[in-house]
User: Fold this.
Amino acid sequence: MINQSYYSESPLWHEKVGDIHALLERVRISEERSADVLQLRKLNRIMSIHASTAIEGNNLTLGQVTDVINGRQVWGPPKDIKEVQNAWQAYNELGHYNPWSVADLLKAHGLMTAALIGESGVFRSVDVAVVRSDGKVMHRGASPEAVPDLVAQLLDWGHTSEAHPLIKSSAVHFMLEHIHPFIDGNGRIGRLWQTLILSKWNPLFAWMPVETMVHNNQALYYKALQDSYNNGIDCRPFIDFMLDAVENSLYKYVDIATETTAKELGVGVNVGVYVGVKADIIGKLKEQPTLSAKELAALLKRSTRTIERHIRELREQGILVRVGSDKSGYWQIKDGAKA
Assistant:
């Protein structure tokens, strides 16, 4: 039976979960201020589909993905176009899936891979391995005979576990990649299923561009998967990564909502010239993008709490974007921001 021993708890998760709770309220407010919530949500879902398929090697640009979804003719590989069409259909069924139903998992896989693979919507019948470009085997999936029971046990654990949905959804995502239940499409299904679990906890997650943050940090995504095998199976590193990705996706959603609202009102979103603490933060991060809030506080002779508050405001305004995790990532400053 799959149980909590598949991950060791981190003392940092409680604070991170609290931050995400607070951000969700800001997302709700940003939606209320938008004159066209449906368009905002559609834009973010298109971004999610582009990102999730791109992670698996789809070469269509975001513009082409948008055209495919809007029914326009696109010149590109038929397989890539079909992948996008399938993903759009699979994501649009989010509200009808039960995240703890094996039948619904198979249904979603069938939609995601229709006309693309032979074993669509069914568990694989052969052994599989994840192989690196140099031929090294990174991971072998469970035996095909064991897959149905392992998936059923995993979803039963998710259904009965008292773990927070942010933690539980990340663990289920990781374990689906570990079991590797399908001949193809495991990554896309794993990311879709985490979004599904989160959306059942808070409906706003149906529209969060979590996959976009994963795509933007793809190397760290695969590293987190691999690091979760360092001492047997402990998906704590993967949960760490996904909590960062979820948090960044919420900031991204607020950024997009802010830009969309500004365009609707006919005003610009250029940052302009900042003064005071914000200007100092931008200036320091232009010199050293990897500085932490604590390091910035020491350099600027301010409290860490003050720096964190200003960073939060800059992120909400779309000025600062966090690339990567809190530990190993860096700050990206939006073009036009001036100290």
